[in-house]
Amino acid sequence: MSVRERRLGAFCAAPITLFLALGFLAPLLVVAAFSVMPSRVFDLAHVPDFSAFVEFVQQGYWKSLAWSIGMAAIATLILFVVCWPLAWAMVHVFGRFTQIITALVVVTLIVSENIRLFGWSLTLMKGGMIEGMWRSWTGAGFDGLLYNVPVIVFGLVYVYLPFMLFPLVQGIAMVPADAPHAAADLGATRRQVLLEIELPLASPGILVGSLLSFVLAAGAVAESKLLGGQAVIVISDDVETAFTYGQNWPLGSALAIVLIVLVGSLALFALARLDLDTVMGRAER
Amino acid sequence: MPVPRWMRVLLGSYGVVIMLLLYLPLVAVFFASISKARYLSFPIRRYSGAWYGEALGSATVRDLLLTSLLVAAIVTVVSVVLGYFAALAFARYRWRHRRLFQKLVLLPIFCVFRRIVTNDSDAT
To answer: Which of A112, A118, A139, B117 is 20 to 30 Å from the Cα of A49, by its Cα?
Structure first.
């Protein structure tokens, strides 16, 4: 690596590094500083105490955190099970139809998350597309399907499907075509090929997909608001309330910091054993 | 390993079902938009395009749309420039902090942070 190449590399990386330092790191530090301020102050010129974290434990905000983390974990698991066969088929079965499926999935991303979730609201509510049609065909109605925990998990699965699907496709495509063949020739069953060849070799894709889905779902708020009603309060909801109606920035910051530390350490842990070059299918030279 | 026919059919139907589910809520929104009734209830009895006329004719909606488009245009230009050079640094050059750089750039993607850090209500 020449001096010129090194300089150019650092030079090209400078704008985004500066941008992230100002737009990502700086606000993060401000939030961290606010989280140790006394309750309901609006500047940082106070003696730090940890009252906001005490409040987190005593006022039961940890329950919202537990709901967020729990629902995100379940949604991630479901997403993996739902997306694996589709991703596998996109690599091995669909041929040119894979491009059509890719396009169809990407196009849904153009429509904002809120509108798609609102569409599910219209579909699942009492008098909505499903219940209304059912009633007009059979004469017997039922309660709407909204406002419970399973429908929130369903919403998470729906919204974050692309974030699991595409990394999985990438991961499965990384499995050398010879490996399953060789295993099958040596007498491995389909189950053994899946468990001992394909899953381990596709693990970078699985890791990225799971991490993305989990982290996004853990911070999600629209699903529980639009589909879940007040069935459960998620942590992002609490953060938003603390910052807006509550006018208690230190509390909001503390809640945010707890979530960030939890999810951030998970992300760092996973990122540490992941190399972008491997995911992009390029070996480090 | 050849994929047996029944499995191809099964996976194909599975793909179709997922795609249909992906678009179902948008179908609901579309039907809601052409329903005449103010309070929506399926099955829709009378259709009308009046809501579109109202939306297109409204000065407020036009203003909001223009603002959105303007913001989107600015964001696109800035992102392309920043992203282009970041990608260049990652893809073309081998330099000292390259590995650290790729991880740092990935970090904000995990954007539980994003919503909280910027405290913006529209990121939902």
So the answer is: B117
